[in-house]
């Protein structure tokens, strides 16, 4: 997925479209609009479009990350109305691949953000912008071992099974834990990115297990996990690490409910994604993979610029 070489538009159809569609709508389609993380992507995209006067930008997404068919329909609609380009965060690596291929065949450049498509579809998009989710999972796992020790049980609270970001983030977290400690992994458990589901799952897991640590792998999951810790009276007694950086998670770091939360550059995904599509439409080349980074935000660094630049 990480095509580090500089890519150019190799399809004659797409190259022609890049010349013709020098102006027009760039459609930003995310996994859901009901999340501060994705609204921060919107802020980045909105900031970027200000620098591309020949283009307009629309922002859309389904009501939830599990509404995959709805997201497919949004991309199909964008292709049908002939947008100039698309910035897409695919909720499912397989389900979104055919419509991205259709965009390519229609001469519409696509920048993929956050989660990748299934392998074998790289030729249908021109840039992939994401956190290195495997590296992020490994960083979280290393902190878990440092804080919780090398034995005991650690629960893994995940979100949607099989999503590209989840495979790297959770998979590499588990692999690092198992390869560098005697910790027993409990789970993963999948919340479908629903905070209430994560809260209920975590409540049950806390009651059934004597945990030394717990990892919540995205924003709604980590919030539900943190609230369950607080409601059970176990906040601060278990090493808890979250993912993403909205106000709820920041408060949990400040209070000690979370030892840390790993925060992606969501603003950068929107900003750099729109910039990449605009550059392609202008006939320029872009990097095939653009790493948007991650910061482990703790009580010690939450007020420092490196954390403030990614929190939202």
From TrEMBL:
Note the InterPro entries from the entry.
Answer: Peripla_BP_I (IPR028082), SBP_2_dom (IPR025997)
Q: Which GO terms describe its cellular component?
A: cell envelope
Q: Where in the cell is it found?
A: Cell envelope
Q: Which Pfam families match?
A: Peripla_BP_4
Q: Which GO terms describe its molecular function?
A: carbohydrate binding
Question: Domain of life here?
Answer: Bacteria
Which residues does the UniProt record annotate as the domain Periplasmic binding protein? 26-284
Keywords from UniProt, A to Z, are: Signal
CDD domains documented for this protein: PBP1_ABC_sugar_binding-like (cd20008)
Q: Where is the signal peptide, in residue numbers?
A: 1-23
Under PANTHER family, the record lists: D-ALLOSE-BINDING PERIPLASMIC PROTEIN-RELATED (PTHR46847)
Protein family: Belongs to the bacterial solute-binding protein 2 family.
Protein known as: Monosaccharide ABC transporter substrate-binding protein, CUT2 family
Originating organism = Epibacterium ulvae
């Amino acid at each position: 997925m990480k095509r580090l070489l500089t890519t150019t538009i190799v399809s004659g159809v797409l190259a022609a479209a890049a010349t013709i569609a020098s102006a027009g709508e760039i459609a930003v389609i995310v996994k859901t609009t009901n999340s501060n993380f994705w609204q921060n992507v919107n802020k980045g995209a909105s900031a970027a479009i200000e620098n591309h006067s020949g283009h307009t930008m629309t922002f859309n997404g389904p009501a939830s990350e599990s509404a995959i068919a709805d997201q497919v329909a949004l991309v199909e609609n964008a292709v049908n109305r002939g947008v100039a380009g698309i910035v897409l965060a695919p909720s499912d690596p397989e389900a979104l691949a055919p419509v991205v291929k259709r965009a390519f065949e229609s001469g519409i450049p696509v920048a993929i953000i956050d989660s990748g498509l299934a392998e074998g579809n790289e030729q249908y998009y021109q840039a992939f912008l994401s956190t290195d989710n495997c590296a992020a999972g490994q960083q979280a796992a290393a902190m878990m071992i440092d804080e919780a020790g090398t034995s005991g049980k650690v629960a893994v609270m995940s979100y949607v099974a099989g999503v590209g970001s989840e495979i790297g983030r959770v998979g590499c977290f588990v692999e690092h834990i198992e390869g560098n400690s005697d910790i027993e992994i409990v789970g993963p458990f999948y919340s479908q990115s629903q905070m209430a589901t994560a809260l209920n799952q975590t409540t049950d897991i806390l009651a059934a297990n004597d945990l030394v640590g717990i990892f919540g792998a995205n924003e709604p999951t980590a919030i539900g996990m943190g609230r369950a810790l607080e409601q059970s009276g176990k906040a601060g007694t278990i090493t808890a690490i979250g993912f993403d950086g909205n106000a709820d998670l920041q408060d949990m770091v400040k209070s000690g409910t979370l030892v840390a939360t790993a925060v992606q550059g969501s603003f950068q995904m929107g900003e750099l994604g729109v910039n990449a599509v605009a550059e392609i439409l202008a006939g320029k080349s872009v990097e095939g993979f653009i790493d948007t980074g991650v910061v482990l935000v703790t009580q010690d660094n939450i007020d420092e610029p490196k954390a403030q630049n990614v929190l939202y």
